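Blinded run. Sample ID left blank on purpose so nobody reads anything into the name before looking at the predicted structure. Input follows.
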Amino acid sequence: MKADYIWMNGKIVPFEEANIHFLSPTMHYGIGAFEGIRCYETPEGAAVFRLREHMQRLLDSVLILGVSEFPYSIDDLCQATFETIKANGFKGCYIRPLIYLDGPLGLDLDASVAKIGIAAWEWGTYLGDEALERGVHMMVSSFTRHHINVSMTKAKISGNYVNSVLAKTLALRSGYDEAIMLDPNGYVSECSGENLFVVNDQDIETPPRATILEGITRNSLVTIAKDSGYNITENLISRDQLYIADELFVCGTAAEVTPVRAVDHRTIGLGKPGPITKTIQQVFFDTVNGTGKRSKEWLEYV
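Blinded prediction complete.
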């Protein structure tokens, strides 16, 4: 996770100088918001996948969090992203904008000023290249996903991810690749950092939007599934329905499209990526690599 430069509050600075104060309220209380975005190397050059949608969600997160003033527009943030990629000379990379608070240590949002940094670095597949081909083994976590009135589930708030860290770390320590999390009512919600899809009899289901972070990759796969002729619906999904699914796959900016071969030591389908998963996965990678039907719509070239 290294780069030469990071964009900080309107200017490019050397990597080592991209610092915030130890007493920042964001560091102590998780009062901040971030995004995860990918830039892909395509035949026409470096291209960022759904950049404006990601930046819109970042601004939505700030609004939901309750920050009263933020000085940058979507256009500003998109331009800053391009500047960051160009400054580092990346052809493909992961991009991390973070809005943080600068002000006195405390719990009052209005006592601080919102600031932002944008970093980028070269990063491969989050769950590993082998995971894309063979699939991963997941556990249903004992940690519950946030109740919709305990935190704001539609905002990518930094502090929300303590929940994800606890679930993910337990899964890794227990010998799994990732954690699936249930909502407060016991239905499948999402993973520690991915959205989830279930395939049965050529139909695709995904948990409803109410208690999940509405992933931009998730939204893209819903469109790709429909373009590919599949019926896709949002439904409540129980834990045991995962075990008897024909196929499972998860998605996210970091994980991209990753098959699930087993859950809680129950083999899913044939224990390898199924045909619908592979179709969706192939169309997604064609798209982000610049050769898909939606490439012109979803890619912004640096």
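Unblinding after everyone has recorded impressions. The longest helix spans residues 51-65.
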